[in-house]
Structure formats: C-alpha cells, structure tokens
Design goal:
Layout: H1 3-6, H2 9-20, H3 24-43, H4 54-57, H5 62-90, H6 95-129, H7 136-175, H8 181-202, H9 211-233, H10 241-248
Helix pairs in contact: 3-5, 3-9, 5-6, 6-7, 7-8, 8-9
Amino acid sequence: MTTADQQPPTTIRHSIRSAIHPSRRLTTTAGVLVFAGMVAGLLSVVPVLEQDDYFGALPARSAEVVSGALFQVLMIPAYAGFALALYPSLRRVSAGLAAGFLGFRLMACGFHLLAAAMLPLLLDLAQGHGTAAPDAATYEILAETLRKARDLVNHVAVIVALGLGDLLLFTLLHRWRLVPRWLSLWGLCGAGLAIFASLLVLSRAVEIVAAPYLLLNAPLALQSLILGAWLIGRGLRESSPIARSRGTGH
C-alpha cells in the first residue's frame, strides 16, 4: 500500500482544495466585499441631484454632496478587492478569463473615481454661482452638463465595464462549475440585462431614476447578494472534477 493510499479521505480532500484554492479566506473576503460595496453604493447616492432646483440647493446641502463623493471613493477598494481576492483562484482554471474580469473591474474603478471627482466640481460651481449673478445662466449650463456627464459615467461607463467583467466571471464560474450552475446562469442573464439597461440610458430610451431601468438592474443586484452570501458560507466549489483537473494540470 502506497503512502497516498494510506492517507485518510479528509487529508485527500484537503490536498485537492489546497491545490486549487490556496486560501479559503480570500473567497470569504470577496463575499464580504460584495456587501461592503453595496452599502457604500447606497450611501453614495446624492438625492439633491435628482431635484429640479438642485443647483440652488447644493450649497445648503454640501455635506450630502461631500458624503456621496467619499462613499463612492470607498466603493473602489470594495470593487477592486473583490476581483483581486478571487483572481488567484480563478486564474488556476482560466488565466485569460480571470485577467479579463480583473481588467474590467479595475476599469470600472477608474470610472468610479472620475464620477466621484465630479461632485466637488458641481459644488464649486453652485457656490460660485452666488458671487457671479451676471453669469448665472452659464454656471447652470455647466452644472447641468457636469451632472449629466456624471450620470453617464455612473450608469453607462461603470455599469458596462462591470457587466462585461461579470460576463467573463460568470462564464468561468459556469464552465468550471465553481458555483451552482443556477447561480452563474443567473449572473450571466443579470449582467446582460444591466448592460442592456445602460444602452437604453445612453440612447435616451429610458431615464435613470425610472422603473424600467431599475427593474433591468434588479436581477443582478439580487444575484450579487446571493453570490456574496455563497462565497462567505461555502466559497467556490473546489471539488468540481473539471476545476480539479485544470487546477492540478491533469
């Protein structure tokens, strides 16, 4: 009887898990970051920008604007950290898809930083408006252009970058069965719907704060919550025969 035959089943299973996913804590971290990113995203909303008279109200609600910018910046480590935490495990089964997923995530983080930087600029325009009454119309036009640009960055550039990355992620998870197939298929459909919603916004077919846009994004948002909980509680499905063969090189 060889040494390998003498190993108890639990030791063999542990060896398989270690070969594919060197740190279970990384997948748990990724799950936690899903929820952290969602909380930061909710807190980054700036309701005053949805008002008809937002420009005049901005100086009095500067704390809301600054808070929104800070929480949007906090979304960056959560979004990037999620991809970086999963990357070591994903690259063992598909280096190309893993790199593509990471790249699109980092691209979305860059767009988040750009959108966050637009908020202080809006505030500066609103505060300068009171000291330059003759140029009021110009200030308002600049502010509206900046607000719309931020909406396009947030709801087109960010969402499309995230959606393309998610398509790669869920393709990888589905092909190598690292999570239940219903969960990865849900993610693929949700990412496709989110990209479609962004294209509708870009073509001005729907408004951002409108039921069609929100409904098209709802499936991916709900799936993200379930995926985060799955990563925390179960991690990736390391015992998959396909993933095991790719991870061990056989």
